[in-house]
UniProtKB/TrEMBL annotation:
Protein keywords: DNA-binding, Transcription, Transcription regulation
Molecular function per GO: DNA binding; DNA-binding transcription factor activity
Regions crossing the membrane: none
SMART domains noted in UniProt: DeoRC, HTH_DEOR
UniProt organism field: Lutibacter profundi
Keyword field contains Lyase: no
UniProt xrefs under PANTHER family: AGA OPERON TRANSCRIPTIONAL REPRESSOR-RELATED (PTHR30363:SF44), HTH-TYPE TRANSCRIPTIONAL REGULATOR SRLR-RELATED (PTHR30363)
Protein name per Swiss-Prot or TrEMBL: DeoR family transcriptional regulator
Length: 249
């Protein structure tokens, strides 16, 4: 397993379990404890985790953690954002989830594009305020600090009344058999509503999210129109997705 893959595994496990032990990670990832200690030191230096004796814990300052994550895998996210940009046209109504890849997309929308964008992501809404021709509609609710998005019944109720042309959706995992999945139940429910409200669903995800399965189901694979990643769309990893009618970009 590559170092970057180990790092993603460690971060995912900390999100779910709220802690990791070096000895357990060594067994699960089939590497030495010295390798795990180096991994934890590197993630700690990036302020993505809090290293403690024998393992690691989540960062207490969750808002800062989001900002750190927005700079993680930045090169890959920029590749994805540039590909996804080709799908945006003048006059569209768009809804965007709160992924850090969507944040990169929001940063590069050309100034001559006129569109309406709904989002429940605070960082994305703030980023779009810099755009001269985008009408921004922020969907308010209770703030879920780890992802800097609003959640709750108010958000679900608002989205259920929408009709949008495009849904740009981040994900923690997508798999042919399990579809799109998320580790947080409330976020998964909001994303279900986003999909129901949209004519086309575009999933933006880095390579490490492909074939990952998280705890809560969002949508079966046939509900997804296009997957946009940082790798070549002809890669064999997409063969089963294409057989199900999912486009790749």
């Amino acid at each position: 397993m590559l170092k970057e893959e180990r790092h993603h595994y460690i971060l995912d496990k900390i999100k779910l379990s709220r802690k990791v032990l070096s000895a357990d990670l060594s067994i699960e990832l089939k590497v030495s404890e010295d390798t795990i200690r180096r991994d934890l030191n590197e993630l700690s230096s990036k302020k993505l985790i809090k290293k403690v004796h024998g393992g690691a814990l989540p960062i207490d300052n969750l808002a800062s953690s989001y900002l750190e994550r927005s700079n993680f895998n930045l090169e890959e996210k920029n590749i994805i954002a540039k590909k996804a940009l080709s799908l945006i046209k003048d006059g569209q109504v768009i809804i965007m989830s709160g992924s850090t890849t969507n944040l990169q997309l929001a940063k590069i929308i050309p100034s001559d594009i006129n569109a309406t964008i709904y989002t429940y992501s605070l960082p994305i809404a703030l980023e779009l305020t810099k755009h001269p021709s985008i009408e921004i509609i922020f969907i308010g609710g209770k703030l879920y600090k780890p992802a800097q998005v609003t959640i709750g019944l108010d958000v679900v109720s608002f989205i259920s009344q929408l009709r949008t042309d495009l849904c740009f959706m981040g994900t923690e995992g997508i798999n042919v058999s399990s579809g799109m999945t998320e580790p947080n139940w409330e976020v998964s429910h909001i994303k279900k509503c986003m999909i129901s409200a949209s004519d086309k669903v575009i999933v933006l995800c880095t390579q490490n999210k492909i074939n990952k399965i998280k705890r809560y189901a969002v949508a079966p694979i046939h509900k997804i129109d296009t997957i946009v990643t940082n790798i070549d769309p002809s890669d064999s990893i997409f063969n089963e997705f294409k057989e199900k009618g999912v486009k790749t970009l």
